Amino acid sequence: MDRKILFPVLAIAILVAASAAVFLVRDSDAGGDKSPSTMEQAELKVFGNANGDRRIDGTDLEIIEEIIKGDRAAADYPLADANNDGAVDRADADLVEKIMKGESATITHVNYYNGGEQIVTTKFPVRSAIMTGSSSAWILTFQLGILDEIKGSSQHGKGDTILYRDSYLDESKCAFLSGGNDIDFENGRAGSSNVIIEKKVTALIADSSKSYITKEKDFENVGVDVVRVTFASVDRPVVAHSALLLGLLFQKVERSIQYLEMFDDLYGQIDRALGSVEDRVSAVASGGHSGTIASTTYEYGKIVMAASGDYGLKNFNFAGATSVKVAEQPSVFDTRLYNYDYVIQFSSFNSEGGGAYRGVTQAYCDGLWDEKVSHFAQWEHNDTGQYIISLGSPVMVRLAYTAAVFYPDIVSMDWADQFHQKVVDALFNGQEYDVSELTFVIHK
Ligand SMILES: [Ca+2]
Ligand SMILES: [Ca+2]
Questions:
Q1: Same domain, 42 and 4
Q2: Ligand 1: distance of its center to the CA of 379 in Å?
Q3: Could you tell me whether strands 175-178 and 282-286 are parallel, antiparallel, or unpaired per DSSP bridges?
Q4: Ligand 1 mean position to 428 CA, how many Å?
Q5: 260 CA distance to ligand 1 middle (Å)
Q6: What confidence score (pLDDT) does residue 383 get?
Q7: Which CATH number covers residue 128?
């Protein structure tokens, strides 16, 4: 057979696939689905998002108009009440129209707060904000393209110094507000900075944990709305709302949907490849501080299950804490009680003058390894079951690497690298990295 004949056939196959994909995107854009949605079911948890999908658009407006006309029942659409005043009327339609046009408005939405949810209001759109900075916080806002809008940030750890050199770490654009989680507030100043007044800041983007921003009311009193999301989450609903809310507020809607689609692609791949694995690996994870193990209420602990692993400290009493220090709880090493195969430690790779995306030296990796692993010296699998994964990488990439550590014969490190490369190419704002040449997982 003439080999050339393969080419047109192949081209047609690709065209068919491409047009099918376009059709799907258009279909969801048009918002054909007008099913009612509660706040719990909604992906974007904002009043006015009447159908509960990923955006506020003409479909929501149509639902509200039909409720006003009496063609639909308000009771069926709890999120149609855009201004959350208990009635669906013209004011809600006007508010949704303003949001669609990007005009100044006040939106009512879910904040994640200390493991729960709160309903709060925030001035929209956000053009000038400050934030609680950490590896997980910055990698999310960075991927959403929220860069110049951040006028000040705390720096809990420096994050990846090369990724953020022109944004959050450039003090001519983004004021340094504190070196810890919290940002102090005194006499209108955030930390010791006058950024709130000078840059007309209207929002403070903070992690959901209440230890980030303890003076929330003080910020709110000077017109700085505190918006709380969960930066490091791998929970599908939390990932979705956190990204989509920031996307809406900062008018990066398409980017936030693209981000979520990539996350969903990963969830789908992990589910297809690992959903029916019978011999699940047992593992624990550690993040934040060295020598700790995270509970299943903490994002680092949750990643074990998201990567199709079994959590290795079942029935351990964390006494309400999100993590324990292993030095204070030697029973975590008692293999008669807990027999896990892996300890995944998450750590920012911040060596002198760079992070994971600049590349880290062997000496740096050796030093980090010795420090992180030493805490687990009592553990039976200490020399084989330890992996350190970079916190500088996107949350979905950390999840891909975790899955690759657990099931290397099914989802390889190469697979995780390829997924990582797609994320970098799509969401890193034009910064280019060949991730296969860099180190994101340390193991010996
Ligand atoms: Ca909608
Ligand atoms: Ca209303």
A1: no
A2: 50
A3: unpaired
A4: 27
A5: 15
A6: 85
A7: 3.40.50.1980
Please check whether residue 390 is in contact with residue 348, taking contact to mean a CB–CB distance below 8 angstroms.
yes
Chain length of the chain: 444
Q: Is residue 118 in a domain?
A: yes
- Say what the pLDDT of residue 21 is: 38
Ion ligand 1 nearby residues (CB, 5 A): 49, 51, 53, 60
Q: How confident is the model at residue 91 (pLDDT cuts 50, 70, 90)?
A: very high
* HSE-CB for 141 with a 13 A CA cutoff: 28
Same domain, 73 and 120: no
Helix (H) or strand (E) holding 20: helix 6-29
Task: Determine the Cα angle at 243 with ends 211 and 142, to 5°.
Answer: 85
Query: Which residue range(s) make up the domain with 48?
Result: 31-103
pLDDT score for 156: 84
Separation of alpha carbons 311 and 401, rounded Å: 17
Q: Which residues of 415-433 are buried (b: 16+ CB within 10 A; e: fewer)?
A: bbbebbeebbeebbeeeeb
Query: b/e for 183-211, b at 16 or more Cβ within 10 A?
Result: bbbeeeebbebebbeebebbbbbbbbbee
261 occurs within a structural domain = no
- Distance in Å, CA 412 to ligand 1 centroid: 37
Q: Are residues 51 and 160 in the same domain?
A: no
Distance 204 CA to ligand 1 centre (A): 25
CA angle, residues 242, 424, 284, in degrees to nearest 5: 60
Tally of domains within the chain? 4
Same-domain check for residues 2 and 123? no
The answer to the question of residue 61 being in a domain is yes
Q: For 196-237, what is the HEC assignment?
A: HHHCCCCEEEEECCCCCCCCHHHHHHCCCEEEEECCCCCCHH
Q: Are residues 132 and 280 in the same domain?
A: no
Mean pLDDT throughout 226-242?
A: 97
Residues 341 and 213 in one domain: no
- Provide the angle, in degrees to the nearest 10, between the axes of the packed helices 413-427 and 253-274: 170
Query: Using CA atoms, how far apart are residues 2 and 192, in angstroms rounded to an integer?
Result: 74
Using an 8 Å Cβ cutoff, are 428 and 163 in contact?
yes
Residue-wise pLDDT for 378-411, tens only, equals 999 998 999 999 999 999 999 999 999 999 999 9
